[in-house]
Each structure stands twice: as C-alpha cells, then as structure tokens.
Amino acid sequence: xxxxxxxxxxxxxxxxxxxxxxxxxxxxxxxxxxxxxxxxxxxxxxxxxxxxxxxxxxxxxxxxxxxxxxxxxxxxxxxxxxxxxxxxxxxxxxxxxxxxxxxxxxxxxxxxxxxxxxxxxxxxxxxxxxxxxxxxxxxxxxxxxxxxxxxxxxxxxxxxxxxxxxxxxxxxxxxxxxxxxxxxxxxxxxxxxxxxxxxxxxxxxxxxxxxxxxxxxxxxxxxxxxxxxxxxxxxxxxxxxxxxxxxxxxxxxxxxxxxxxxxxxxxxxxxxxxxxxxxxxxxxxxxxxxxxxxxxxxxxxxxx
Length: 304
Fold this sequence. Notes:
Strand content: 15-25%
Number of strands: 11
Structural class: alpha+beta
Distance between the termini: 67 Å
Strand order of the largest sheet: 2-1-5-4-3
Number of domains: 2
Radius of gyration: 22 Å
CATH superfamily of the largest domain: Reverse transcriptase/Diguanylate cyclase domain
Number of helices: 12
CATH topology of the largest domain: Alpha-Beta Plaits
Helix content: 25-40%
Order of helices and strands: HHEEHHHEEEHHEHHEEHEEEHH
CATH class of the largest domain: Alpha Beta
Largest sheet: 5 strands, antiparallel
Shape: elongated
C-alpha cells in the first residue's frame, strides 16, 4: 500500500514518540532529533542538528565524569557494533542534570560498515515531590524551585524525627548550600540567581530515590531526607550530588557559570533535634542565621 511505503510516515512516528530519539553519523554529528529529545533536554532540533554530540549533550555519570571517549556508550557501539544500555545524567538546557536511561543501536550501511548510531533515551524515575505527596503539596511548593517550601520542609522533618522515637530507626539528612550567590546577585541583579536555585533543586531531585525528599531550607540552601539510615549510602549520595552539581552549568546573558556547592550529611537517630542535626552538619549555620558572613569551607561533602 502506498501509504505504508511513504518514508514520511515513519519519520512522523519517530517525531511523535514519547521518548527521546536522535541519530549520529560517523563523525558524531546529530542528523536527527525528535520532539521527545526536545522535551527531555530543552534543546530544539535546530539548535542541535548538525552539531557534534559532544557539544550540547555533555552526558556525565554519577561521579560527574563527562562521558566522552572510552566512557561513551556511543563509542562502544561504533567500535563493537553492539547495542549499549546505561544510565546517564543529561545536561538540560536550563542547566540542571536530569537522570536518563540510554540505549544505543548501531545503524549498518551494509553488513560490515556502521554508518551511524541511533540513541534512544527517556527520563528515569526521580523523587518527584508532587508525586510523593499528591494534593497535600498544592500551594506548599516554593515558586522559584518547584520543591517544598521551607515551612513544609521543616514540618516534614520534625514529623520524621518524631517518628524515629516509635520506630527506633534512622534516616539520612543532606544539607546542600550553593556558594557565592550573594556576590553573584550583587554583580548581576537579584533575578540572576534564580537559574542557580532552580537548576540545583532539579539536579538534587533527579539524584534521589523515589522515597527520598528534597525541600527548600535557607535562602541558598536545600535539605534532602534519605530513606536509608546507612552512613555509607548517605555519604555516597552526598558525593554523587556534589559531583553532579559541579558539572551543572547556568547560562546568564551568554556566559556560562558552574554551580559551586557544598554537600554535608548526617544520620538522624532517635532523640535528635532538628537544629542539633543542622548544626552538626554545618557549624556555621547559627552564625549565618544571625546575619554573620561565615561560610563553610571545602568542596567535598562534610562528614556527619
């Protein structure tokens, strides 16, 4: 039937798939970019097609290592001729890192020559606070970042700490602070820090598990609650979030800026109080709350 032999039909199907699909030629240039890829990454087709994949995509792993060269699943597919499946963090156009599942497929010009690689990707499940708490979140989200407001975060943490007395368990707590935003705001205006806050919130949200929670805490701070009470697991997650934030980029009037952050962690146990936990993670927190200029030092996650 002529209808089914029309190549435009199949291109239309690829365009409308609810997942991301793009095609690379032998020189790693993007030759096709569907609407699913636009939705997931924020990049429109005309911004990407014709560009090398190492340009706007800049996928990285959980350690913040950019997946180029031998680490790249596309490279493995070109060299070995086999499909690859992996989990990467894509750099969204707005600057945050988004977890995605990726599968690569070799495209053969003939039986022996690989002419290109097709890449299929979709958003991996993230700890979406609006999904976790449903209608209870309505009106309680921070308008700048889209995560729970400071008031709701405090209420949730206090309730979680009370629950520890009955369950005799524990949970992990992460304090994420974005550095140098006060100076950046003074140079570029108050609105200039909004992309930093939004990108940080979304990167943290995409880094956590489905049972975990992240909310706004201070002016430039976020708190995350992890379901796991394991010090090793919590420390590893703090390390992961720090790496991903350090690889997140913000665009402001044509210039690109990396996010500078510290990620501290602690384990909440029965008998702990919220402010005690915060001070344990950040001894300068009390000084900051009173308006002092003290800042935590070091880029690596602090031990809880």
